[in-house]
Write a structure and sequence with these properties.
With 97 residues, this protein is an all-alpha fold. It is 79% helix and 0% strand. It is elongated and about 50 Å long.
Amino acid sequence: MRQAILGSGLMLAPIAWFASLEANFALAPLACTAHGKSTLLLVSAAALGLAILGGLLAWTQRDYHRRLSFSGAALSALFTIVIVAQAIPNVMLRGCE
């Protein structure tokens, strides 16, 4: 069970980032409509939550396997920064820019 939690902690943030990236590209035509921008922000918020959850899962396993736990937490922190940076244009720009 510990290995599954640690593996989830390592992989959750990159998967969340990739899903957010693909969803933002797929939903970009909807951004010109009234509710499209909120959908993009919702996708980014969900990805951000998953990335943070992945870091917390990895961090809770630091007594079991220290290096992998720290690697998972660091990877999640970096992907959290990437997801936030990816969400900035959704916040700053209007839909069709």
